[in-house]
Amino acid sequence: MKKVLLTMAITTALYGCGESLEDVKNESETVVPTVAGSVAFDPSNGVVSVPNDLLFLGTTDGTLNMPGEDADEIDYSDPQTSLGALDGWSTQSPYQIALDVPASLTLDASTVNGDSVRLFEVVMGASITDAECSQVPAGIACKFVKELTFGVDYFAQANGNNIAIVPLKPFNQGSSYINVVTNSLRDTRGESFAPSETYGLVKLDINSLPLVTEDQKALQAVINSYENTVIQSGSLTKEDIIYSGAMTIQSAGSVMSMVKNVYAMSAATQQNMPQLMMGPSTGMTVGDVLFRSQGAQPPSPVFDQIKYERGSVVLPHYLKTPQGTEDSALNNTYWKGLCDSAATLAGFKAQGGTVPAEPINEKDAICFNATNGLLRDLGLDEQRHLTKFNPLPMPHSYANVPVQVTTPADDLTVLNVVRSQLGLPALEMPATGWPVVMLQHGITSTKESMLAITAALTLQGFVTVAIDHPIHGERGIDVDGDGEFDFIASGDDGNVLHYMNLSSNLVARDNLRQSMADLLGLRLSLAATNLQGINPTDVSFVGHSLGAVVAPGFLAAANESVAPLVGEQAAAMIDPLFKVNTVALASGSGGLAGFLLESGSFGNVIKGSVLAAAGTAESAEFIAFMQSEEAIQACAQFAGSQSDYAGCAFVAYTTKLTLAGETEKLANISGTISQFAFAIQTAVDAADSNSLASKVASQGAAIYQNVVVGDGEGNPADTVIPPYSTVSPVSGTVPSGQLMGLMPVATSQVSAEPMSYLVKFTKGHHGSVLTPAPAYGVTPADAAAANAEMQGQVASFLASRGLMLQVANESVVTE
Questions:
Q1: Which residues of 679-699 are buried (b: 16+ CB within 10 A; e: fewer)?
Q2: Residue limits of the Bacterial virulence factor lipase N-terminal domain (predicted)?
């Protein structure tokens, strides 16, 4: 850790410190230029394909250095600049390696394959996990781990005269990889591509052909280390290599683990532990709240046998409070660290600075005690980005969060009559108390929507608890105190972009994190509550849509043992207070960029919003189009919603361009959206389901997930979160489920040990787990059948704690 600052700075020759690479070309041994194509690589002139660890050069806090961070006032809402808040690259975004192809030549697309495009996992210097490599300078490749398999781990193909690389599995968070292009890449003449002039210089052996200045030799050492490390695979030689570039994948889960650790310490010390405090009894049933309040009668007598109660829990709010009522006021509300980055502290000490042995104030003491002295608050780190070097977030306020609670009626007679009709034994409260199911709703919805599944769960003897996501339901934000929410994502007047913030990728990430953190707090509060008759150590989870999207991040932290923090003996008491044994997810996904852009509900809204904010010529033309009479008439029905209007106008605008044959403009728009997809996926990866899927799979919780894939005829696949994505093969509900180790099934399952399953529905729609109502392309009969089957599967799976999955109606599911 000590070497992070100093060694990251040694190759600042890239950005003009000392003699530039132009000087290298003039002063080093002559290299004969070639007319062959090459990989574009000329860092001194800003020609570097990303992801690339050369953008770590000069870092003082372990984050990427982006051009926008040179401004006096840094705008981290800018998609490119936002990458400067990260400690690495995306776990899953497709990316490109740019080629320099002379006008007379054309890339032979058939040669973009597993011979010409190689990927190697390595350990880089200054590793915080490998003792041997911890003493090697940062930026230097230290150790070969393995070569990735083409067609299994990744795929490459030509994209024009460039190379597109598509991960088929997420890269391991926190790990490093080296991209290699070999001379097996050829043009249509059959001639091999060659190293660029610059790369040809820095790949020269530093021992026999050192370059001129110390900075130049430092860069040469970096590239030499890449090549020397990957040839340890034995599958290629240095002469084969025409390009190599390292990429370190950002950390995922370290911040949520720290949030969990803070909660764990509160449990260990019994101080500041969140408490679920119940209010006076409402005297109402779920039947009253969900149906009679809307002038309807409950469809089942069970709803009137469920007590509806309300409580609250005080939870830390790590999102900053917006200071204005305009949407732009949300752009800087992202999470920040409470402390100085450990990387910054290491650099400070390496430059002769003195760090006090003991805390100098209350905040410094919190940093010191929470991290065994690793983090401090000495005012050295201005930006306080949250990374693996600085994972402790700063709470900006404490929110009194309303909690919805349902319990079985005191008199179980009616419930047991219904159970008898279903062939189930009589229900009685266990001696240890009722088991609990945490419920989490979808985007633009509220906790009350989850009441629809409480009948199925109550019949199985569960208490349920639920809270709203941030900026949803009762948790909208009223900045000016006029009694009206200025920011709210749910309801008729809600704006989905207040939560899924496309104006600031860091805020989009941290809204997801806040949802996860709130679930951790709610989970722990079950052990400190005046709610009688529950078992706080027998807890399951049901998440729908966004609730399923944030579930893996919550579960990864909740089911992680705190033994390294408090010791095995204390962990034996604390771990059960967080553990979630059984999980049911409906219509969730990872790979956020892919499923958002292809969402039938949100995709065009997102594309329109991105194009409007892009600042390109097409952006200006689109903004003018939105104000035209043509757009106003075409999108009149969406006039009341700025986001929906932008989505409608995007369709109208691109349709107009298509009919006019404006292929160049359409290509530019596609490029803009692709750049956005890369930036937002990279920014949110620390909170993305896919980044934590393998960790969740390893923890052993039994997980059920359902997804509507459609019947190939009238019943469409899920139109909100698609089951698959063409943007990325790891995006969509089905790939995400597979990454968590879920086994696809279409029949009933019984096992001796808890198992995890993925069930694909041919009938139903995105909301079918909650409602029997039809939707576009879904008949009333099919919608009702899907709803009944989904709720039955969820209930049987949770009731058996993952030992059984009952598939009663095989006609609505498929393998």
A1: bbbbbbbbbbbbbbbbbbbeb
A2: 50-272
Q: Which residues contact 551 (CB under 8 A, 6 or more apart)?
A: 440, 541, 543, 583, 585, 588, 689
Across the range 279-294, mean pLDDT stands at: 97
Exposure string (b/e) for 331-362, b if CB count within 10 Å is 16 or more?
bbbbbbbbbbbbbbbbbbeeeeeeeeeebeee
Q: Inter-axis angle of helices 663-684 and 617-626, to 10 degrees?
A: 100
Q: Where does 271-385 have alpha helices with state H? A: 286-290, 342-350, 362-370
For tokens 């930006």, name the residue. 383
Residues 55, 48 contacting (CB under 8 angstroms)? yes
Name which of 513, 522, 519 is nearest 273 in CA terms. Answer: 522
Residues 205-242 have pLDDT tens digits of: 999 999 998 878 988 999 999 999 999 999 999 999 99
- d(Cα 319, Cα 134) in Å, to the nearest integer? 34
What is the number of H-type helices and E-type strands within the chain?
26, 23
CA distance 628 to 653: 11
491 burial class (0-12, 13-18, 19+ CB within 10 angstroms)?
middle
Which tokens is 589 given?
């996904």
Share of the chain above pLDDT 90, in %: 90
Residues contacting residue 2 through CB under 8 Å, at least 6 positions apart: 346, 349, 350
Provide the pairing of β-strand 757-761 with 702-708.
parallel
∠ Cα 660 661 665 (to 5°): 100
**CA–CA distances in Å: residue 50 to residues 46, 77, 122, 170:** 11, 20, 18, 17
Asked whether the beta carbons of 179 and 245 are under 8 A apart, the reply is yes
Q: How far is CA 431 from the centre of its chain?
A: 40
User: Residue 576 in contact with residue 537, Cβ under 8 Å?
Assistant: yes
Question: Could you give the C-alpha distances from 414 to 306, 454, 523, 649, in angstroms and in order?
Answer: 11, 15, 30, 53
Amino acid (one-letter) located at 284? M
SS3 at position 722: coil
Contacts of 373 by beta carbon, 8 Å cutoff, 6+ apart: none
Partners of residue 758 on adjacent β-strands: 705, 744
Give 662's Cβ-side CA count (13 Å radius): 15
3-state secondary structure of 341: coil
β-strand partners of 403: 311
Residue type, 23: D
Q: Where are the domains of the chain?
A: 4-248, 275-338+395-479+492-579, 596-685, 688-814
Instruction: Look at residue 159 and give its three-state secondary structure.
Output: strand
- Give Cα separations from 35 to 101, 161, 201, 241, 253 (angstroms): 9, 16, 16, 18, 47
Which CATH code for domain 275-338+395-479+492-579? Answer: 3.40.50
- The CA dihedral of 573, 578, 583, 586, to the nearest 10 degrees, is 180
Smallest Cα–Cα separation from 262: which of 250, 274, 252? 274
Q: Is 372 exposed, middle or buried (0-12, 13-18, 19+ CB in 10 A)?
A: exposed
Beta-carbon count within 10 A of 636 CB: 10
Q: Please provide the average confidence, as pLDDT, over all residues in the chain.
A: 94
- Rounded Cα gap, residues 345 and 389, in angstroms: 10
Q: How far is CA 324 from CA 329, 394, 486, 527, in A?
A: 5, 21, 9, 38
pLDDT band at 732 (very low <50, low <70, confident <90, very high): very high
In the DSSP assignment, the letter for residue 813 is E
Residue 757's DSSP bridge partners are 704, 743
pLDDT at 517 over 80: yes
DSSP state for residue 194 in the 8-state scheme:
B
pTM of the model: 0.93
